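Table S2 (text version). Query chain:
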Amino acid sequence: MLNLKVKTFYLMLFYFIEYAKYTLLYQDFLMKNIIIITGGAGFVGSNLIKHFLKKTNLKIISLDNYSSGTKKNHILSSRVKYLKGSTLNIQKILFPYKKKIHSLFHFGEFSRIYQSFKNFYECFDSNSIGSKEVFKFCLDNNIKLIYSATSASLGNNGSDKNLSPYAFIKAKNLEMLENLKKWFKMKYEVIYFYNVYGEGQIEVGPMATVVGIFQYHYKKNKPLPIVKPGTQSRRFTHIDDTIEICYKAWKDNKCKHYSISNKTSYTIIQLAKLFNSKTKFLAPRQGERYASALTNISQSNKIHKYFGKTQLKEYVVNFLNNLKNP
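Corresponding structure-token output:
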């Protein structure tokens, strides 16, 4: 009888401790009710904000320097705050909120290959110095990081990372994160993007996407510009599929590497043919990749591969139909 009472006591104590543990975790979650999205006024960031507004009750703060983001992408909601500033100053800008930040999506880097040659200092400041400030801010304040990596650093067994300043710096950031995990047990998710396209993409200017550029030229009845040779292939991935994996990585919270791409590759010439339009060829560009690489390993980390449902051909057909039948 005594043994039964002792067992019952320890069992109740165990359940009490577990209850207290989860209560504290829940209280911590309630206190940390802010999601930070760097680049929140950009193409991917603004779509991610929309998704979080639908799926959660959390508050969202966008930190953007508006180099490619725009106020047109702002979402009117009492739960969203937009701050203009550089990640170089993230410690100062987000100081008032740091105790309430649950996670940080770092999508606010310089994100074009060819332009990283022409704007090297801007790329370096944003992707090297700025990103290190973001990493340090997350590490200092125990904030979970979700980092947007690039397929540009994966090709040719990793040697494509040396093709451009953009790819090289992004690859070095992954090495830094891996070491921060070893040194300080930093928690983060990494998501590899593959030529994201869809509603809200940039159509004009140096930061425009290929699909966006073709859409703009088609609407203006201009030839679609193809960078030579045009046989370079890409795994164009719709924004909705990309955002789904971003949210999954955040929700699963397993500290993994993910890639979100499409099973079908298109050359730039094949993409142009979908528009059934005139084309013109542009001179080859420095740093050009000739294939979007799928790989199972980045650094020493296994990449968990996911494939989008939206098909590029269907998207272009819908775009053309909507123009004909507005």
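Notes on Table S2: The chain has a mean pLDDT of 90. The radius of gyration is 22 Å.
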